[in-house]
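job 3f2a | input accepted
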Amino acid sequence: MGAFDLFSIGHSNIPADRFIALLGDAGADAVADVRSSPYSRFFPWFSRKNLQARLAQEGMTYMPYGDALGGRPRDVSLYRNGIADYAAMALTPEFQAGLERLQNDASHCRICLMCAEREPLDCHRCLLVARALAGRGAAVGHILHDGTIEPHAATEARLLALAGEGAGLFATGQNERLAAAYRRRAGAVAYRLKAGSMGAKTIAETR
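job 3f2a | predicted structure (207 res):
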């Protein structure tokens, strides 16, 4: 299977051909879409219908995972101070079942998680999903737009460097510092509810 069990990528604004090339260079043959809403207003080639068709043309599989592994939960209890709570989301049965299904699928094909944000540290695919996968012993590689594949451990090292001393102010061990860095980063980049945008249990427009 190679050095990585799964990959991740953020589509951002790259052309479809470049996106396909990055997947091919990594050896991925399936895309697990972890956007809560698999549409792109400004880059329609990444909307579900168009993306699924293009992947099929390339002999690749499209897998929708947004319901289980998306970054914008519908349940209001999964927000803290209006911000999506990744720690709480990671403990839900739906998320855990999604991870189980993802790892089962990954035993049959070379999966790349996909969301919108270019930088892994700006996205729940890294801060939530890849972190949980790494905790289960899976090797995750983040495909960067220059073609580099960054091991998740290296991404975590960047996370610690970005956090600086603040992340470890009250944390003594490496694991505690890393957990604090994850919390701080998630608090900065996770989805924030907009006033009046949420009903009893749903969000209309989600990642």
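job 3f2a | The domain at 6-151 is CATH 3.90.190 (Protein-Tyrosine Phosphatase; Chain A).
job 3f2a | closed
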